[in-house]
Amino acid sequence: MIDPDLLAAATWTTEPAAVRRTDEGLEVSAVRGSDAWRVTSYGFVHDDAHGLLAPFGARDAVEVRFRLDYDQQFDQAGVLLRASPQTWVKAGVEVSDGVPQVGAVVTAGRSDWSVAPVPDWHGREVTVRASREGDAVTVRARVDDEPFRLVRVAPVDPDLELRAGPYCCAPTRDGLVVTVTGWRRTAPDAALH
């Protein structure tokens, strides 16, 4: 379920090609070439990911759920936390070299990227959870009702104003449609482990 209060408070970072409300949630059609990346290794800056973002507090957590039914190079979906074009975190599942990879990109002026293959997640429902407490954001992910696994712990300025919510990108193709089936706010994680 998508929290209607979050939806009412949200705005797009970059408008997608189309958005359609369905009984399952939101179908978001990405624009070819959309992405989020800054400088590292490639030398380019992309700042046109389709993020639907609402305010995200200093002690807060957000969960985004989506169907992993995409399979083209660099197709991606998950959760985006954003303060500015130079400061953001995206976490979710991105297809790289033909395999779904759970991972995160943390950007403070320059982007980094960490991934782990999850080929058995294809065709299933993924939940990505970002929990903010103090000077850190803890990202966890799971498929269906399996236990959450730790994806990343990233530093974040506790005074930084962030917005957070679902995102998707289609860096290399037309036709990516991501079905967001859930988006909710919850209390931050009580512990790292």
How is the topology of this model organized?
Layout: H1 4-9, E1 11-12, E2 18-21, E3 26-29, E4 36-38, E5 45-47, E6 50-56, E7 60-67, E8 76-84, E9 87-96, E10 99-108, E11 114-117, E12 125-133, E13 136-143, E14 149-155, E15 162-169, E16 177-186
Antiparallel strand pairs: 1-6, 2-3, 3-16, 4-5, 6-15, 7-12, 7-16, 8-9, 8-15, 9-10, 10-11, 12-13, 13-14
Protein name: DUF1349 domain-containing protein
InterPro entries: ConA-like_dom_sf, DUF1349
Organism: Klenkia marina
Question: How does this structure look, described?
Answer:
By secondary structure, the chain is mostly beta strands. The protein has one domain (4-149, 156-186): Jelly Rolls. Helix content is 3%, strand content 55%. The protein is built from 1 helix and 16 strands. The protein has one helix at 4-9; strands at residues 11-12, 18-21, 26-29, 36-38, 45-47, 50-56, 60-67, 76-84, 87-96, 99-108, 114-117, 125-133, 136-143, 149-155, 162-169, 177-186. The strands form 3 sheets. A 7-stranded antiparallel β-sheet has the order 1-6-15-8-9-10-11. A 7-stranded antiparallel β-sheet has the order 2-3-16-7-12-13-14, with no helix packed on it. Strands 4-5 form a two-stranded antiparallel sheet. Strand 8 and strand 9 form a beta hairpin. The longest helix is centred in the N-terminal third of the chain and has 6 residues, at 4-9. It starts with a helix and ends in a 7-residue tail after the last strand. Pfam families: DUF1349. It comes from Klenkia marina. This is DUF1349 domain-containing protein.
